[in-house]
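Example complex used in Figure S2.
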Amino acid sequence: MSTIKFTARKISDAATVTSQCAVLPVFTRRRLSAAAKQLDETSSGAIGDALALGDIAGKSGEILFLPGAGSARRLLLVGCGDPARFDRAAARKFCRTVYTALNRTKAKDAVIHVADLQVTDADHAWLLDYLARELTCSAYRYTETVSKPKSALTLRRVVIDTGGALTARKAQAALDSGHCTGLGVNTARNLANLPGNVCTPDYLAQQARTLGRGNAKLSVSVLDEKKMQGLGMGALLSVAAGSEQPARLIVMHYKGGKKDDKPYVLVGKGITFDSGGISLKPGAKMDEMKFDMGGAASVFGTLRAVAEMALPLNVVGIVAAAENMPSGRATKPGDVVTSMSGKTIEVLNTDAEGRLVLCDALTYAERFKPRAVIDIATLTGACVVALGAHASGLYANRDELAQQLLDAGTASHDRAWRMPLWEDYQRQLKSNFADLANIGGPGGGSITAACFLANFTENYHWAHLDIAGSAWDSSPKGATGRPVALLTRYLMDRAGR
Ligand code: BES
Ligand code: MN
Ligand code: ZN
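Predicted assembly (497 residues):
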């Protein structure tokens, strides 16, 4: 995968900087940034003329390409609207406009002049981080299973003119963290986009091993079905029972902190295809159930970002990987299985399989004496009904942890919304034949799924992200890489970055 190199620079005269494209913010009321003024002068007023002629008014989202000026081969003017209203939403639109326009050119390098851009409700580091992340994400192309992939982005090097708001070191650090986050997001997207016949539980295990080989701080172990049997993971194994593909429990241990630092543990739902099992899903959009390992993909992506940044933390990634299929050996509605915790579960619906693989992975997480455990899962259609695509559902058994995750979501614009874990909902999970039922009836489906998991996470600080609505888009179809940006921001905050 091609990627972009980002460099922060303080540029005093934009006209003297050699580049294939100079990107210049322009504001309404014909106000030019300092860099735009400098390039305007060397181009005998071409920028001022374009504004005077009305070819670009400076409104948010507008763009105009002009021939080169000074040492820049092209100029790209980007409307930013009223500078007094240049908030985070406007800044996000600016970033989107820039990468969309640059993706249409053949420029190999660009200088983006953001020195004069002041975001009203965020600092300059936020802007640099977000810009580098968005540009990195815009370079992603899915290529694995297409014979003629879309043409790659030609952009290789980006210089960001940062002005004096930040020290050179802080500006570069913000670009680097955004770039690393983007790489993590792209890693998650790529894994989740792979079809179920390629991305099997064992394929995920191989990917983990590959990731581990590339980093001395990352050690990887994979538990096969026999090992899981030995640990008593009857819930996880019951999901894989109908599939030809054996289940895998993948453990990735990133050791960036001190030896005794308690780790943050991320647990991902890795259902590489969810047919529903004997409780078979209807046919429409069933293909999208290849994305049912989006939680697992986000664990891979976050670990990649954390490792690229070399965060001084210990992080364990656990992926519960299985395929949910119907067959003569498949688990049936009414079957009772015993989880690793010893709790028995009546499987009333084999399509509620995510919680079955997660409960054993969450019990397994106890052995790491975690500081906090966060599971990430495309868990319920009900969460899509409740929150749609914009927010991931957040549940937590500690208010402080919930707030930290909400804040990380806001900062990274990968937002979550907290939902209740009240005891009242637990009643919906009662069974006559086991300690728990795996479904909670028609009301509050995302909540009862989270309540089911809460039965297995009483011994540590725990949060659950239901990403059923946020993990992928249906048109055009593709994984979003969420919530890698949220999780990476959360871990950076813990590391004091
Ligand atoms: N993977 C699905 C959840 C899902 C559905 C995510 C649609 C995204 C879009 C999960 O395994 C599932 O099937 N959940 C059931 C639970 C029900 C049987 C209690 C659901 O949501 O219908
Ligand atoms: Mn299901
Ligand atoms: Zn599922």
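The first strand starts at residue 5 and ends at 9. The chain has a mean pLDDT of 97.
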